[in-house]
Every structure is written in C-alpha cells, then in structure tokens.
Amino acid sequence: MSGGEGPPPVFDGHDFPYWKICMESYLEAVDSLLYTPAIIGFPEITDKDKPTTSEQNYEKWNAKARNILFRGLCKEVFNRVRNQKCAHKLWEEICALHEGTLSEREQRHSTLNKKLSDFRMFPHENANQMYSRLNVLVEELNGLNLI
Hints:
The chain has helices at 16-30, 32-40, 53-71, 75-81, 87-99, 102-117, 127-143.
C-alpha cells in the first residue's frame, strides 16, 4: 500500500458519520483508485467470459476496496453485510444500515432544521463553545446527504 498509514478506521456501531468520513479519506490515502469502486462504483462488466482490460482492473480495485471496508468493520456490523461481493454495494448497505431510510433521514433533517432555526447562545457559554455546537449541528445536516 502506498499512502495509507496503519489499519483502516474500525466502525464499532457508534458515530457512523465520523467513521464514514474517516473511511472515505482512508481509501483515498491508500490509493486514490480505491475510492471509486467503493464510494462511486464501476459499471457492470458486459461480458463476464471476456472482460476487457479495464474491466479486469475494476475487479482488482473492487477486491482491494472490499477488503479494506471489511477490515474497517467490527464483527457485529461485518456479519450483517458479509455477503456483498461488490465494494460499492457493500458501502451502500453499510450506509443504509446506519444512516436510515430516506424517510428517516428526511425526518431527522426536519428535526435538525428546527434546532438550527431555534439555535441560540447559552448564557454560560463563550463564542467558541457556541460555534462548536453550531458546527456539530451543521455537520449532522450535511451528513444526511439530502441536499
């Protein structure tokens, strides 16, 4: 491996948005070609008996990305997604399990928007503390991938 240092971040079932960003970054750091099969996905192989050179490379990068994703999961999460052979489908399933359905994310988005509109500085906090709370709220909204 060229760019990644140490093992991938391990997701233990808690704080998925943090793990997701760390794993995306880790895949890019190991090799920028690993990001595509996991996060974006490759086109389907047209003729499995006669794959093109590019399609053979897709399979190689898929296997590497899938390996990293599996190594980044605790056993409980791994057992829920272990049958996926495609890195991108594996990624999508992990995200669906921990981000919720579209309607659940939309409901969370609505709740967070209400919190944002009601956001105020507490009497006991300074500007840095307030900004930190605001930043967490905005990042939660961005993490829902609805916009």
